[in-house]
Amino acid sequence: MTLSSPGTRAEAEPRPDRPSVTELRLAAFAAHRRAGFPLGPLSLFSGPSGSGKSSALRAYEALARLGGGAELDEVFPDPVACVPERARPDSQRRRGFRIGCTADGPEGPVRLDVAVQAEPELRIVGERLTAGGLTLLETALRDPGRRTVQAAWHTAGSSPVTRAPLPDDRLGTALLPLRVAGKTDGQRQVLAAAEQMVVALRSVYACDPLPRSMRSAVPLGAGRLLRGCGNLAEVLWRTRAECGRRHGLLVDAVRAGCAGPVRDLLAETATGGVEGTVRALLDRGDGLRTPLGRLGDGELRYLALALVLLTGPGVLEVDPAGEVPAALQTLTVLADGFDRDLDVRQRVGLVRLAARMCERGHIRLVGAVSDASWAAGVGGVTVVDLEP
């Protein structure tokens, strides 16, 4: 693995107000062993098929869902697929995987590491939350016959730690705000670190636009863009009316990435179809409107990803931390196959748009590409080159 990066934050610079994940660690996950990947505001995992790009994004999304309180079996419906292929079971037939991350923010770098048993039963068997060299939370499986782990968190009061059982199917870090009173300095330190990690992980939008699902008329609904972007026409119906400025930026982006003239991008009630459905069109400016169904796969993926970058949690199907002001949260977009079906012009235009948006601090992007040489001249891009 080789890395290229625009640089790291100097020690003297103030800590960021918005928590964000700055490192992904895959100690033992799918094709990865003892791997650590630094992440910038705009990061691209690059490598050939089978190098582990998609599994890295899958691990990030799994941590995000666990940070949001999801149960383990929801996050890992096929946990055995996450176990390294050459991992051998122990004497009790147990196999598993280990993932983790670092979240930087007002509390400084906070590390989270999680060990998951995949066989014979899916459960979290160990978790550690650390900051500044201090272990703030540590869990371990003591009794395999019980569906709990023994947890110990930093207290620094009359007792140095507090011990209690936690469920083995949930991330302990996400449960701490409900368990820790915050009466001592140590407890408050634990709460602050846990909350920073949860906020950094929660606002994640994983997407992989599917052109075939974007070509047809769709029913009107909540107007939140789904993972495959199949309801893009419905979202355009909403966003075009809500924010003219952002819609204008989207039209500019589409104009640069789609063939032929583009004056506007709009949604209209579908005719001759099911009542209550809408379809999206390109206004060519000469009385001709081209349905999105006539566009190429690359144009549709380009359009969908541009819309993702130019909108926010209120439009995307994400679950941000509702108790934290939006100004203190960062949306992270996970885009598998970021360059799929795109020509060089579209790739460069899209990554430049991503760089401009990520520079503002309210959005980050982690994408997977087969080759990142075309992004070499774009500032602000961190390339993680996964060598076979």
User: How much helical structure, as a percent, in the residues?
Assistant: 25-40%
Order of adjacent strands in the largest pleated sheet: 3-2-5-6-7-8-9-10
Shape: elongated
Largest sheet, strands/sense/barrel: 8 strands, antiparallel
C-alpha termini separation: 8 Å
> What is the number of beta strands?
18
Could you tell me the strand content as a percent range?
25-35%
* Count of alpha and pi helical runs: 8
Average pLDDT metric: 90
Secondary-structure element order, N to C: EEEEHHEEEEEEHHEEHHEEEHEHEE
Structural class: alpha+beta
Tell me the radius of gyration. 22 Å
Q: Spans of 5+ residues with little confidence (pLDDT < 50)?
A: 1-12
Question: Would you write up a description of this structure?
Answer:
With 388 residues, this protein is an alpha+beta fold. It has eight helices and 18 strands. Strands 3-2-5-6-7-8-9-10 form an eight-stranded antiparallel sheet, covered by helices on one side. Strand 8 and strand 9 form a beta hairpin. Helix 3 crosses helix 4 and helix 6 packs antiparallel against helix 7. The protein starts with a strand and ends with a strand. The N terminus is likely disordered.
Question: Could you give a short description of this structure?
Answer:
This protein has 8 helices and 18 strands.
